[in-house]
């Protein structure tokens, strides 16, 4: 059944928005095409979560204007704490839909690295953006939310690393959601050309002012031959925000994509993370932590699909559920015919902290090739009373003992986040959420 | 400070089955007591019940630490009151480093604002690890995770030495140790020995007692202390086994659940 939902924006609004930005024709027409499709396409069908009644489409404003930050010194403390202000030379900060601060070192500019907000990139680097924007990793017409995303994209970043350029310092982005009426259709596009390497880390932050809102995020990572991309993220959107987030990567021959994802939203969330191991010897690794609380409902589907020979895919997810939160963890390792000597491994662990919490771990292996290796492990359990007894027998209070066990449970993933400030942020968010 | 731990007529059940059937013991600081006995006679149950293991129900009796009934305390309160249990099977805890755990344990005994300084902590930790011939990297490993049996036992003794409780109950601290590890563990226990430290060692081998001379030896069978004596009792058990005690007391099956 497809229920017809009236979208809060029409063709005129989208056209006007595109014109106001001075967007190239390809983007304007892509938006309008997508908008037409969004009306009819069905919602995605995340396995085991019913989302027909979720609000992904109704929001007050498509775009809002927010004040930019003049310099690093002017940043609010909540953002400053994420950034190594002394050292961070490559930083994009977006406030709601407004590009609010951008720095890129002269050195990287000179090497041809591009890092800018997505709408500026569409104008200034149309050939690159047009080539990769929703053409390969995520397609416009997959379902209503990808189409809506393409039609309404109003923020995000573009990062291009030319051939043979290896960037040692992480590139950082911070997306601030602090306007009660702002909807976020954020698109991040990372293209790492042959033999390049880069680390990109993003944080989504929200303030309590955001009551009911819609966020629709698509990230695309293109790792070309022998490229290496590390993608870190901490999502921390507000309780009233319904989020659709889809992060996908395409790995070429000999390339490698690592994801470290801290899924800390307080609202209902559908998250998809997919790595397509197209090239021979490609490598994909997803590490994800989740803390669910309140009444929030979430679905985390992680997929690594192998086409390349000798390709390796690893998924590790740890989730903590408290209160009446409920989460589905779907892990899919798929090996296509011809991907000989591929290896697909996955592990999902869910720790339940209350009677009412729900957690479901579903490991799925789909294998169309004989000459491969694969494995999975999944568990849903409670804090082990023997562990608590052990810790408490050393004088540690029950509360502190539980805290240690929970942090310890999440640590293997938290420790993988590539920026100290973001790692600290994630630890602090976890601390707050599990209290 | 001298302290006493008195166990009075302790009865303990698990899942409705009575395991301890009236244990009486008196321990003083400055002394090392040993409980021996074959498998399945209730030794670990006694140790766990004193510390407050959640699975055991105390149906009767008292455990008094300096006159205070510890059975009314939470597990962490018992530890803070001065009890320590080296467990037969220590838990593994992912993501919590040995060092962080030890610092939390030490600080749990201190007032807020009076926490041990990092420098002092590290100095003490290094000193004790060296004394126990442990690889210093083990401080940064996750608590007991992937430790060998011997490493776990050493780690229990390390905790004992760092926490310095009034009473240490050591449950099978010697099992699974090779001779070198046994010597190291004994060295740790002997180091703790002193006026302010009382110890209850649970073992079913006498070989540990080649390195630690006990002040008193008790034998447990059928969930009770059935015989007590000095170090000579351990030697006789080593030479003759347990059968003579069973004969003396008319016991056929020494394990819990069998009535005399
Ligand atoms: N967790 C438990 N659940 C059920 N029975 C137990 C448990 N722990 C101990 N027991 C029973 O209690 C009895 C004594 O065990 P234990 O105290 O471990 O003996 P010991 O340490 O002397 O070998 C045994 O019969 C054992 O089966
Ligand atoms: Mg035992």
Describe this structure in words.
The complex is a heterodimer of chains A (435) and B (260). Chain A has 435 residues and is an alpha/beta fold. Chain A has one domain. Chain A has helices at residues 11-20, 25-40, 77-80, 106-110, 118-124, 126-132, 144-152, 385-392, 398-414, 420-434, and strands at 91-95, 98-103, 114-117, 155-161, 171-177, 184-192, 197-206, 213-223, 228-236, 241-251, 256-263, 269-277, 283-292, 297-306, 312-321, 326-335, 343-352, 358-367, 373-382. Chain B is of the alpha/beta class and 260 residues long. Chain B contains eight helices and twelve strands. In chain B, the strands form three sheets. In chain B, strands 6-9-10-3-11-12 form a six-stranded mixed sheet, with helices on both faces. In chain B, strands 2-1-4-5 form a four-stranded antiparallel sheet. A two-stranded antiparallel sheet of chain B has the order 7-8. In chain B, a hairpin with a 2-residue loop joins strand 4 (56-65) and strand 5 (68-69). The mean pLDDT of chain B is 95. Classes of the chains: A alpha/beta (435), B alpha/beta (260).
Secondary structure: elements and pairs:
The complex is a heterodimer of chains A (435) and B (260).
Chain A: H1 11-20, H2 25-40, H3 77-80, E1 91-95, E2 98-103, H4 106-110, E3 114-117, H5 118-124, H6 126-132, H7 144-152, E4 155-161, E5 171-177, E6 184-192, E7 197-206, E8 213-223, E9 228-236, E10 241-251, E11 256-263, E12 269-277, E13 283-292, E14 297-306, E15 312-321, E16 326-335, E17 343-352, E18 358-367, E19 373-382, H8 385-392, H9 398-414, H10 420-434
Chain B: E1 4-14, E2 17-28, E3 32-36, H1 43-51, E4 56-65, E5 68-69, H2 75-81, E6 83-86, E7 93-97, H3 98-107, H4 118-131, E8 142-143, H5 149-163, E9 167-171, H6 179-192, E10 198-203, E11 216-221, E12 224-229, H7 231-240, H8 243-249
Parallel strand pairs in B: 3-10, 3-11, 6-9, 9-10
Antiparallel strand pairs in B: 1-2, 1-4, 4-5, 7-8, 11-12
Helix pairs in contact in B: 5-6
The complex binds adenosine-5'-diphosphate and magnesium ion.
